[in-house]
Specification:
The protein is globular. With about 120 residues, it is α/β, with parallel strands linked by helices. β2 and β3 form a beta hairpin. It has a four-stranded mixed β-sheet with strand order 1-4-3-2, with helices on one face.
Length: about 120
């Protein structure tokens, strides 16, 4: 049996807006599908996995059970860039002595910005 990871699906009140935000946040990912019922982004059109944003009427209400971890070259600069783009700090009970920063995208989906590899 062959199996390939195709995408992660993200519920969004404004799928197009959130997909564009993540495409920019991830450093130039591209929109490969832009339909009223789904917007998909990928690193390049032929590279999987992608992120598929689907519209839902309700707002996010609880902590995500699955989230994305990002590993930057410069954690402090990346956190600042993402906050300037509209992310905000999020508290998911991580405590004060951790090496990652928890942020939330414009619709409240949590994700982590890990420490820089060169700092590990």
């Amino acid at each position: 049996m062959a199996l390939q990871w195709e995408q992660i699906v993200v519920d969004a009140q404004d799928a197009g807006r959130l997909a564009r935000w993540w495409a920019e946040a991830l450093g130039g990912w591209v929109i490969v599908t832009d339909q009223p019922d789904e917007v998909e982004i990928r690193k390049s059109p032929d590279q999987l996995p992608g992120l598929l944003f689907t519209p839902v009427p309700e707002a996010k209400t609880v902590k995500n059970r699955l989230h994305i971890d990002l590993r930057p070259d410069d954690q402090e600069a990346e956190v600042e860039r993402l906050i300037d783009m509209g992310a905000r700090h999020a508290d998911v009970g991580q405590g004060g002595d951790v090496t990652w920063v928890v942020l939330a995208d414009p619709e409240g989906n949590e994700f982590c910005v890990l420490s820089s590899r060169k700092a590990d």
